[in-house]
């Protein structure tokens, strides 16, 4: 499957829409690339947010490909970034996640649950079936 084009500059809403479309289609690695573009082209204050989301997507990729240890490790790193690295200074003082409607708490719970299941040996056979909701309920 061809990779996503690199270096595409999107706004936060477009980034989230495209990444969700790719996650829902069972293409988490492609969603990772969309998030990677966001962290490379976006404001420095949002780097942790986009990197955390990218790590969640690539963690799902690894888990779905049978690399349960690597997948779990990346899922936990991504969750930790969302917890510890939520940028401040967005409109109204909200974190970047809150300002963009990202359900950071739901995503953290989803990632940690999937990491636990992967470490317990539960296969992640279908990436689309395991895809999180980025906004409005992880």
Structural class by secondary-structure content: mainly alpha
Distance between the termini: 27 Å
Element-by-element helix/strand order: HHHHHHH
What radius of gyration results from the CA coordinates? Answer: 14 Å
Helical residues, percent = 55-70%
Number of helices: 7
Describe the main β-sheet briefly: none
* Proportion of residues in β-strands: under 5%
Shape: globular
**Mean pLDDT over the full residue set:** 87
Low-confidence stretches: 87-94
Number of strands: 0
Brief summary:
This protein is 62% helix and 0% strand. It is mainly α. Helix 1 (12-24) packs antiparallel against helix 2.
Defining key terms:
single chain, 138 residues, mainly alpha, 7 helices, 0% strand
What does this 3D model show about the protein?
With 138 residues, the chain is mainly alpha-helical. The protein contains seven helices and no strands. The chain has helices at residues 12-24, 28-41, 47-64, 68-84, 96-99, 104-119, 127-130. The radius of gyration is 14 Å and the shape is globular. The two termini are 27 Å apart.
List the helices and strands and how they pair.
Elements: H1 12-24, H2 28-41, H3 47-64, H4 68-84, H5 96-99, H6 104-119, H7 127-130
Helix pairs in contact: 1-2, 2-3, 3-4, 4-6
